[in-house]
Automatic annotation (TrEMBL):
Gene3D superfamilies: Vaccinia Virus protein VP39. It comes from the Eukaryota. This is tRNA N(3)-methylcytidine methyltransferase. Keywords: Methyltransferase, Transferase. S-adenosyl-L-methionine-dependent methyltransferase. GO terms for molecular function: RNA methyltransferase activity; S-adenosylmethionine-dependent methyltransferase activity. Its EC number is 2.1.1.-. The keyword Transferase applies.
Length: 318
């Protein structure tokens, strides 16, 4: 275990005490004001979301921005102990910082990775190919998909259908609906052989918070649909009162607990109740759900930072 993993911890402070301190601070009161309808996130465009994230990954394409999420197996040991040839769908793969450690962990695991940003997929593919992980490139299967606005492609269930569909992957996301008939024919011809099943795991690591709240329920329902019965969804994202939330100015609010950065990318901050409602509404069974509270110190600035993330595991019923 690396020194970084050995030092990883998640209960440095009490979330309720943090909540009381923040809600009693008058300089932060604007975070809790009701949101006016005119500033609602309902007008958010999927194409604008994709464009914003394309620009984001273009600006942050250097190696310094890429850090493998080595903590995954401490928080989600199921990934390390999964069966041979397990399938993982990494939703919102970004630059591959989650996919690469999963590929590194087990030589037989298959990682399907989607993102709404083609720039992100390019960066992820470059990072995977540059790694020294055994057969990583052949086990990494990237594709463009906005899970908050489009149905999942039917070939996602099957290796054979994935290979058949490769020439189609340069199409726009909405074109997946247009080729639904072709995908259905492929599935029908292979039904007895390979098109029954789905993913063993879906990972949602700092992805759902980038989706407008009104689209989250649909997005999570799509994750539910691609899992095998008994499969697990592994969730980690920004929690309510995380220091990142408190850095947003009043004019960056676009909804209750929703914010938009100057580059157009969004961030939502989850309470346990909201996260639970989203996942249970899709049909999941709650396995774990808690705040992860980490105190870190910037020694150069002599500043203590209180990070809050929501950690969850949800299972599709058998």
């Amino acid at each position: 275990m690396s020194s970084q993993e050995a030092e990883y911890h998640s209960n440095d402070f009490d979330w309720e005490e943090l909540r009381e301190r923040i809600e009693d601070d008058p300089t932060l009161a604007y975070h809790f004001l009701p949101q006016s309808p005119s500033s609602s996130s309902s007008s958010s465009s999927s194409s604008l979301d994709s464009q914003s994230w394309n620009h984001f990954h273009s600006r942050h394409s250097t190696g310094k921005f890429f850090k493998e999420r080595r903590y995954l197996f401490k928080e989600f040991p199921e990934l390390a102990s999964c069966g041979e040839y397990s399938k993982v769908l990494e939703v919102g793969c970004g630059n591959g910082s989650t996919a690469l450690p999963i590929l590194r962990c087990k030589e037989s695991i298959l990682v399907f990775a989607c993102d709404c940003s083609t720039e992100a997929l390019d960066r992820a593919t470059e990072n995977i190919q540059a790694s020294n992980v055994v057969s990583a490139s052949s086990r990494f299967r990237p594709f463009c998909w906005d899970f908050s606005t489009c149905r999942s492609p039917k070939w996602l269930m099957c290796d054979s259908c994935y290979k058949t569909s490769l020439p189609k992957q340069s199409m726009s996301l909405l074109d997946f609906d247009n080729c639904e008939t072709d995908a259905t024919n492929i599935a029908s011809s292979k039904e007895g052989e390979c098109c029954i099943g789905g993913m063993d795991f879906v990972t949602l690591i700092f992805t759902l918070s980038a989706v407008p709240l009104h689209r989250m329920y649909t997005a999570v329902a799509e994750c539910f649909s691609v899992l095998k019965p008994g499969g697990l969804l592994l969730f980690r994202d920004y929690g309510l009162y995380d220091m990142t939330m408190l850095r947003f100015e009043a004019d960056q609010r676009v909804g209750f607990r929703e914010y938009k950065r100057s580059d157009g990318t969004r961030s939502y901050f989850f309470s346990l109740d909201i996260a639970r409602d989203i996942f249970l509404s899709a049909g999941f069974i709650e396995v774990e759900l808690e705040y992860c509270c980490v105190k870190s110190v910037n020694r150069r600035k002599q500043k203590t930072m209180h990070r809050v993330w929501v950690h969850g595991k949800f299972q599709k019923p058998m």
